[in-house]
């Protein structure tokens, strides 16, 4: 099935209904394995058991950026290729991305208090991640402000692409500036700096949260298509009554 | 399982994560139920796109 075939909302909803139960099952299995791995993971020699917070913090930090990158691709779909479902994809991803960003910030603070002695510092990594969270909220507010979905979609697409400049800033902030936040431990030159006994549950939890995003995103897109159908039918009803 | 002297922070992190994920799932599920109900109500009232197309065209006589 080509991407253009999914441009038909009815066909897309039918596909989502078929695929959703499998995605839910895969997500639950991945979380079961990930949480079991987190439970069994040894204590870190410096962090102690607090390393277990990393199994939530790191996947959510990765996904906070991945979701914005997904929205950026959808924004190109809206502005360049005018794919009918591109703005639906972008609108539905925003609340999920905001939730992941909130979790990255909250769990990072809960890790920072015992490790650094503070819940928050205004270093480059934390500040740029907070900016990302505020941008998510601004995007959600923009979607709610403009009534017409296609006008809202174009405005949101421009804002999303402008905001994408924050992604490399977040990623390279620990290299470009002196930060309290540690440098990259997984995706780095020379390979991961984490022992396999901790890396494995971390990667499984990352897969679990990614599957969660895909599942919720597709379900939310289905809901948005239904919402637009309701809106169209209510407009027809209002026309007939007039 | 001994979570050490900072157990409260670890437990709080997992509780917050569970709450946020549960809220996301609840939002998507509740929204789906609401949209299904709205579509069913509109269908019950006979409001469909096909019914709009089936109305006879009104041809206006030139002035």
Summarize the structure.
The complex is a heterodimer of chains A (242) and B (63). Chain A is built from 7 helices and no strands. Chain A has 242 residues and is mainly α.
As residue ranges, the low-confidence spans of chain A are none
How does the helix and strand content of chain B classify structurally?
A: mainly alpha
Instruction: Classify the helix fraction of chain B into a percent range.
Output: 55-70%
Head-to-tail CA distance between termini of chain B: 88 Å
Main sheet specs of chain B? none
User: What is the overall pLDDT average of chain A?
Assistant: 91
Low-pLDDT stretches of chain B are 54-60
Question: Into which percentage range does the β-strand content of chain B fall?
Answer: under 5%
Most extensive interface, chain pair and sizes: A-B, 38 and 33 residues
Radius of gyration of chain A: 20 Å
Count, helices of chain A: 7
Identify the overall geometry of chain A: globular
- Helix content range of the residues of chain A, please? over 70%
Shape of chain B: rod-shaped
Alpha carbon gap, first and last residue of chain A = 42 Å
Order of helices and strands of chain A: HHHHHHH
Biggest β-sheet description of chain A: none
The beta-strand count of chain B equals 0
- The overall number of domains of chain A is 1
Tell me the strand percentage band of chain A: under 5%
Quick one: how many beta strands of chain A?
Answer: 0
């Amino acid at each position: 099935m080509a991407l253009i075939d999914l441009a038909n909302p009815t066909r897309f909803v039918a596909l989502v209904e078929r695929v959703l139960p499998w995605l839910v099952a895969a997500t639950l299995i991945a979380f079961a394995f990930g949480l079991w791995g987190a439970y069994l993971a040894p204590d870190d020699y410096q962090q102690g058991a607090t390393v277990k917070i990393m199994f939530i913090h790191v996947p959510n930090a990765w996904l906070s950026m991945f979701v914005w990158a997904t929205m950026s691709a959808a924004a190109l779909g809206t502005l360049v290729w005018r794919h009918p479902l591109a703005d639906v994809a972008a609108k539905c991803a925003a609340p999920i991305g905001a939730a992941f960003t909130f979790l990255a910030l909250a769990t990072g603070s809960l890790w920072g208090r015992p490790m650094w002695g503070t819940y928050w510092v205004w270093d480059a990594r934390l500040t740029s991640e907070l900016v990302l969270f505020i941008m998510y909220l601004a995007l959600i507010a923009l979607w709610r402000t403009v009534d017409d979905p296609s006008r809202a979609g174009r405005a949101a697409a421009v804002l999303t692409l402008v905001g994408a400049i924050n992604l490399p800033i977040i990623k390279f902030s620990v290299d470009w500036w002196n930060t309290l936040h540690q440098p990259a431990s997984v995706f780095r030159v020379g390979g991961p700096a984490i022992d396999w006994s901790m890396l494995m549950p971390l990667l499984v939890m990352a897969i679990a949260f990614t599957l969660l995003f895909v599942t919720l995103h597709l379900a939310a897109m289905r809901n948005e298509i239904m919402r637009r159908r309701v809106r169209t039918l209510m407009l027809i009803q209002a026309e007939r009554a007039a | 399982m001994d979570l050490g002297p900072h157990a409260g922070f670890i437990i709080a992190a997992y509780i917050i994560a569970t709450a946020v994920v549960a809220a996301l799932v609840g939002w998507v599920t509740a929204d789906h139920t609401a949209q299904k109900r709205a579509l069913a109500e509109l269908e019950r009232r006979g409001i469909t796109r096909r019914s709009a197309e089936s109305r006879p065209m009104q041809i206006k006589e030139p002035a």
